[in-house]
Design goal:
Number of helices: 5
CATH class: Alpha Beta
Number of strands: 7
CATH architecture: 3-Layer(aba) Sandwich
CATH topology: Rossmann fold
Order of helices and strands: HEHEHEEHEHEE
Helix content: 25-40%
Structural class: alpha/beta
Shape: globular
Radius of gyration: 14 Å
Strand order of the largest sheet: 3-2-1-4-5-7-6
Distance between the termini: 30 Å
Amino acid sequence: MDDIAGRKALLEASGLTKGRVLDIGMGDCGCMSFYLARRGFQVVGIDSSSKAVHEARETAARRKCSGLFSAKRANAEQLPFERCEFDAVIAYNSFHHMNGVGKAISEMFRVCKDKGLVIISDLHDNEPGSGELLQKIERLAAGRAKNVRTIRTKHNTVFMCRK
């Protein structure tokens, strides 16, 4: 599913217009990463899969996004970045692939700048456990941010947290 409308809604709701963004679990398509790079953001996309990172780099070269996008193999539970390094940290439809959701959320807040945004979006559907996952994300995000804004799109539930 290529959810352009969801990515557009997320960006509009966030108010982000520029900056350095970390895309957690970009996948082999790098959909969110490339969407942001085409809008002028400096994007670092990570994925735990070497294959996904390789394919995203090849796609970036074909789309001429190289100056605005870089890909790195990394685990969301142990991010290889300094504290307060990114203006925004986004996990777009990747948490349902992860085991350590709590640790990943903790790491997202660690690498996000003060007053930056942590944005987590994941699918809501009839898959077993999707409701439980979304409740867990909301609870963990609320424990780290003073204000968690929840937005429901056609396919996703989005949690926007101002650090």
